[in-house]
Amino acid sequence: TAPSSLTVNGHFAPISGEPATEEQHEHGVQVIDEDKQFNPHLSTYLKHKNIIPAGFNYHLISVFGSQSTGKSTLLNHLFGTEFDVMSETARKQTTKGIWMSVNKRDHSDGGAGSEMRKMADNILVMDVEGTDGRERGEDQDFERKSALFALATSEVLIVNIWEHQVGLYQGANMGLLKTVFEVNLQLFLKDKNSTPRSLLFFVIRDHLGTTPLSNLRETLIQDLTRIWTTLSKPKGLENSRIEDYFDFAFSALPHKILQPKNFITEVEKLGTRFREDYRDSKKPGLNDQELDGGVFLPEYHRRIPADGFSVYAEGVWDQIVNNKDLDLPTQQELLAQFRCDEISREVLVAFDEAISPLESQQADGVRLGNPTIIPGLGDVMRESRTNAIKDFETEGSRYHKGVFTRKRTELEGKVDTRLKALSQGQLSAAHKSGVADFTQAVTAAVKFGQKRGGKGGGYDFAEIVEREKGKAVGKFKNESEGLRIVGAPWSKYEQELRLFEKELGEVSARLRGEEMRRLATRVERWVRSRLGESIGLEFNKLGSGRGGSGAPETGEKPATEKDLWDRIWTTFAKTVREAEAIFTERARSFDASPEEVEVGLWRLRRKSWGVLKAKLEEEVMEGNLLLKLRENFEDKFRYDEAGVPRIWRPTDDIEGAYTRARESTLTLIPLLSRFRLSETSAPPPLPEWVGVPPASLSQADEEDLTPIGGVDEDEGKSLEEEMTVLSETKSQDLGVRFKKMADGVYVEAKRSAIGGVAQ
Ligand code: GDP
Ligand code: MG
């Protein structure tokens, strides 16, 4: 048998193996070889000839007829093709299988002064192997199969016939036509809905001119009708008429060898009919008298987009060759699936190019623990999505509608899955950085406010939080709005916004906790300074034996000494109450909860007690207290009731005065050693005053607290101990030191009395 490649006019055009080069395609392509193999590279040819992007703007013509009736010759003249032509000397079959070529001419000459007429775009011509079908069974099979193939794909079927064959009903041509009609019925049995029509264009060759074309046409029509009636028709189509499926057109050409000039002119005229402007002339058909109409009616078109033609043709041929019932609607659906998948893959390549780098950028960010916000992501997403879907629609919409719609949904699904993940990643990055920015902004604003200082810390915490929250939410909304894709219902981000706001709330609560601590510290500081002053003042009063620098008093003991602790307790309680009011007001101003305030106040009372204790300890430090006692004693000893300094004379009862003053001052030591209220002689009600720990007290709230005896029972320290200002030993020691000091003063007084006399 023949090799898998053939030579056309000396040009190599392989059917299997590598696709042919553009140059090898110069003279056409073999669609089906003599072994009934379909050329898998047909699409390469269509690509080389730039047919693929034509959509529906292309036409397919097949030529039929007995072997060596000048078919190839006719096509080459009409369309400038270079199909193999039998040499005039060596008579043998040349065309094997089915060949295809594009029309190489733009215009055809209408002749007789009429101008050149534009031919239709992208005409594809198929030269079908002619046989004398009578002779071999094998050939008859091929003839039938190629007729079916041509019918399934072509809009116009040129039937090439000698004039002297017209009317020869038994002739080979009529056998071929019978085949065409039969396969046509078989073909459209399955496709009742669309029943595309075809044009049978009879070209009568070697027309002598003696019999007018109209007569020849009549004869042919009679013959065709006869064939149609004798045809055994499938069930349901018994009453169908030939006109239901075919239109007819006729043309006659003079003898090419005997009248070469006329032949050329007439072929040129015939060429003008391969155009689309059928509207300006009558539709070609049984009653067409004009013989001038354009042949490409839209209803002849098989509606297979050019980019799917090779796949479709191969599928059709596969069905035919395997003797399966040719089911064109199914073929068209299969084609649609195949092509839509292919187109989908193509558009996804471009989509991928735009989106993949962004996906990796995002993944890298997440991997490094630093999610990135990709600037302009929304624009890229929208553009990529629109392009993908638009490109898909441009090509895919030419295919079976149901399949196309389904595949578009699939494509949208694929695209959207990725875009959704991308936008989620973007928003999670925006979330993370938004929370971080918010925390940082609030902290910075507080710090700035603190530096500025002033009443209440110099800033409004609640206002800072509100302002920064507004900014953060605005920014997040902006980002999510930027990611919105119109027409994509999934592209909504309310939930993400809610999560973001929720976390801002949590962060605010944490920051507010910190702010509460800062407030507590500030209020404590205030308490310390107030107590430092007022308690210091109370102790200073001890220096005066007569209760301050006022008028002289009567009675054994000045009220100031006896009421010392009452006044300290009162001052302390009042100061802390003021501090509590300040704390409450400030905490409320930044929305602290009642529980938080309660905890804060409880802590404040305890801490304030600690402050007071520290102040008391400072006051009773050995040196300090001794000094106070000395002052107290000297005040009583050296000044008289009117506050006038005494000048001791030897006659004065120095010893008596000394003893009284000393004993009076000594009573201060036990008084000072214990914090007791004068009325009850009991410690102040510190446990009740501090109160029980609030229910919402947290571990952290308790951690930095110093235990208080009598308040924190499990500390094993009693309230008595808590209220002990001076221990027993310290008191005794203080008494001894004081007495020594007083003795010194007494001796000095004695001396000065004697010395004063001596003077
Ligand atoms: P095909 O087998 O139908 O393609 O026929 P070809 O185009 O190869 O031509 C077969 C032979 O017929 C060649 O020798 C041609 O020169 C000859 N031929 C071509 N056109 C005509 C014609 O119009 N009239 C006659 N009588 N012979 C022709
Ligand atoms: Mg030929």
UniProtKB/TrEMBL annotation:
- Membrane-protein topology: Multi-pass membrane protein
Gene encoding it?
Answer: SEY1
- Record's keyword terms, sorted: Endoplasmic reticulum, GTP-binding, Hydrolase, Membrane, Nucleotide-binding, Transmembrane, Transmembrane helix
List where in the cell it is found: Endoplasmic reticulum membrane
Q: Where is the GB1/RHD3-type G domain?
A: 55-313
Q: Name it.
A: Dynamin-like GTPase that mediates homotypic ER fusion
Top-level taxon: Eukaryota
**Molecular function GO labels:** GTP binding; GTPase activity
Report the family membership: Belongs to the TRAFAC class dynamin-like GTPase superfamily. GB1/RHD3 GTPase family. RHD3 subfamily.
GO CC, sorted alphabetically, is: endoplasmic reticulum membrane
Major subcellular location class: endoplasmic reticulum
Q: Which residues lie on this side of the membrane: Cytoplasmic?
A: 1-759
Residues annotated as binding GTP are 65-72
In its keyword annotation, does this UniProt entry include Hydrolase? Answer: yes
- One GO BP: endoplasmic reticulum membrane fusion
Q: Can you name the source organism?
A: Glutinoglossum americanum
